[in-house]
Amino acid sequence: MRILITNDDGINAPGLEVLEQIAADLAGPSGEVWVVAPAFEQSGVGHCISYTHPTMIAELAPRRFAAEGSPADCVLAGLYDVLAGSPPDLVLSGVNRGNNAGENTVYSGTIGGAMEGALQGIRSIALSQFYGPENVRLDNPFEAAAAHGATTVRALLEHGLWEGEDYHTFYNVNFPPCPAADVGEIKITSQGRRKKTNFAVEPHIAPSGRRFLWIKGGEQHERTGAGTDVEATLDGHISVTPMRADLTAHDALQTLRERLG
User: Looking at the predicted structure, is the pLDDT value of residue 165 above 90?
Assistant: First the structure.
């Protein structure tokens, strides 16, 4: 198996090392793992692509490249430059430092990398590690993802639904904020919504006297209800959410046709 991996935390992120180990396990001794990851952190860029300026790419080691762009840029670079003519069997994005569940999914560059892979017709999975008081101080906070990542991906490769009429399905996987030994079963979930959590800005005055705004997130451990990604991971389970790039609110179509027709 040939696997292309990327992330949004950058080429030197510890979560990428975990994903490399997961990918190597999946690929096996006769397989290939190719890394094309952002040269610098790209958290929060979503599905951004560098449409208006070029992307510099550098080979750091065999099968290991850093690109000055977003995760989606890195997937495009991997498919059409690094692996041109020999497409991968699988795209993996992550392992993100922190959860990409609930409303975080909308902003996530990790999700953006997997979404681009799906748009290109490649089976794609985003993986993220929820942080909390039970795992943040472990020697390896990614312990749950490292121990259960390969098994989870194998289950999706064997049993997952990948095709779509227009937009292919990809998967958003979140590992719970607990030690690996305490991880429960895989739960198939919908995207939750932390109703009291939003991104906001916080103003600060620099030593120069200039005013700057910092983007800040909200409470990440608010419950979102049964059957959702946040709830499952907070209960110690691995959440798997099937996703597509189609943003249409299909449930509103008929009502709007009746009202505006």
Answer: no
Give a yes or no: residue 253 inside a domain: no
CA distance 14 to 191: 26
Q: Detail the residues annotated as belonging to a binding site for a divalent metal cation.
A: 8-9, 43, 96
The SS3 call for residue 159 is: helix
Residues annotated in a binding site: 8-9, 43, 96
Report the domain count for the chain.
1
Question: Residue 198 domain-assigned?
Answer: no
pLDDT in tens, 83-136: 999 999 999 999 999 999 999 999 999 999 999 999 999 999 999 999 999 999
| pLDDT of 145 higher than 90 | yes
Q: How many helices (H) and strands (E) in the chain? A: 7, 11
Say if 109 falls within a structural domain.
Answer: yes
Q: What is the DSSP letter of 250?
A: H
